[in-house]
Specification:
single chain; alpha/beta; Rossmann fold; 8-stranded mixed β-sheet; 8 strands; DUF1023; AB_hydrolase_fold; DUF1023 domain-containing protein
Length: 389
């Protein structure tokens, strides 16, 4: 958190003053060195000394200019922070005249705090760019902005995404290497007792399908009473032929593992459930079978063509009483390609706890299955951890 507006203005004033003093010192040194030959200080050795002093004093021209640019950034940040503070004060005064508007005020102040946090982040990032020779990369993962809250992360991502998302959605990740990275949350990730991460499969990177995936996340969030994350952190295969490949799942599994680790770092007291659907089950299996394991209390493999492993024993979940579950509807055509990415997780020898689900359900109806939703609710609310935050 940056200082308040008066402190920012004071820092900008000090930087500007010191920059002026350094400029004067640089000019004086330059004039002095240039005047040396006129004093009789001549000869090859003397000229070499003068050239060396020119070389040493020349870099002193840069810092004052750099300091003035930083001072400008601090001044602009102070002005914007004053405007945010003024809006907050006006909102409080306005709501005091409207009975029953306290809830609206709380939401508004929450949004203003998120904008303030984003302003702090942007100021710090700009100062880093001005003061270091290494260009800062735009954040691509949730862990790239560890000091920002979820609302501020959403505001930052919304600035560059160009997406028009519903107001109940928080954008956690966007862009990054390769097309298709989009991670969004429904529900309050900051305060929820549980977070269920949904990992879709084939064709899920198509923007046209985003509303359907968000509706599924809403259904899960409502069922569990917690938050749900739509994890599209990888360029998903566009069709069944591409879904035969192992490498996309392996690379995506690494990204999913990093994301879940960041969730656990931010809120260690939450229960975490990961649900991999179709090819997303392969991704989740890969995440749990390498890199030290997956931060999840429950891993659910839905309509899975395999999990990229030979058995549940090859997967590691980092959670309290971790469990691996599997469900494939009886008429789900995924059964026809079972074994493509390892044994069918619903077979007895695999080692997962198998649930029957809807007898008439198909490959896309899991999110309407009352059996699955009831199970998710039970897992999300079982033995909540005491918050250690």
């Amino acid at each position: 958190m940056l200082p308040d507006a008066p402190s920012l203005r004071h820092a900008a004033h000090l930087l500007s003053t010191d920059a002026g003093w350094l400029t004067e010192q640089h000019d004086w040194l330059t004039r002095t060195v240039r005047a040396l030959p006129g004093t009789g200080f001549r000869g090859s050795a003397a000229q070499a000394a003068v050239d060396r002093m020119h070389h040493l004093t020349a870099p002193l021209h840069g810092p004052p200019e750099q300091m003035l640019r930083v001072a400008q950034v601090l001044s602009m940040t102070a002005t914007l922070r004053e405007e945010l503070d003024a809006v907050a004060r006006r909102a409080v005064l306005a709501v005091e005249r409207i009975p029953g508007a306290e809830g609206l005020l709380a939401l508004l102040l929450k949004d203003l705090r998120a904008l303030g946090d984003l302003l702090d982040h942007a100021c710090a990032r700009q100062v880093d760019l001005l003061c270091t020779s290494i260009p800062a990369e735009d954040p691509a993962r949730l862990g790239d902005t560890p000091d920002l809250g979820i609302d501020a992360v959403h505001e930052l991502n919304a600035l560059t995404s160009g997406l028009e998302l519903p107001p109940d959605v928080r954008l956690l990740e966007i862009g990054g290497e390769g097309a298709g990275r989009l991670v969004a949350a429904v529900g309050d990730v900051e305060t929820a007792a549980s977070v269920t991460t949904l990992v879709p499969g084939v064709g899920s990177s198509d923007p046209a399908g985003l509303p359907v995936h968000l509706d599924r996340a809403r259904t899960v969030a409502q069922a569990t009473g917690g938050a749900a994350v739509l994890w599209l952190g990888y360029p998903a295969p566009t069709g069944l032929p591409q879904a035969l490949a192992q490498e996309p799942a392996r690379a995506a599994g690494s990204e999913l593992r990093v994301f879940q680790q960041e969730l656990a770092r931010r809120h260690p007291g939450q229960r975490r459930i990961v649900v991999g659907h179709s090819y997303g089950a392969v991704v989740a299996g890969r995440a749990a079978s390498s890199g030290g394991g997956l931060y999840a209390d429950d891993l659910v493999l839905l309509g899975s063509p395999g999990a990229g492993v030979g058995s549940a024993a090859e997967m590691t979940l980092l959670g309290d009483d971790p469990r691996i579950h599997a469900m494939t509807h009886p008429v789900d055509p995924i059964r026809l390609v079972a074994g493509t990415h390892g044994p069918d997780p619903t077979t007895p020898g695999f080692g997962a706890r198998v649930w029957p689900g809807d007898r008439e359900g198909d490959h896309s109806s899991y999110w309407d299955d009352p059996v699955l939703l009831g199970l998710l609710k039970g897992w999300a609310q079982k033995n909540p951890r005491a918050s250690s935050e």
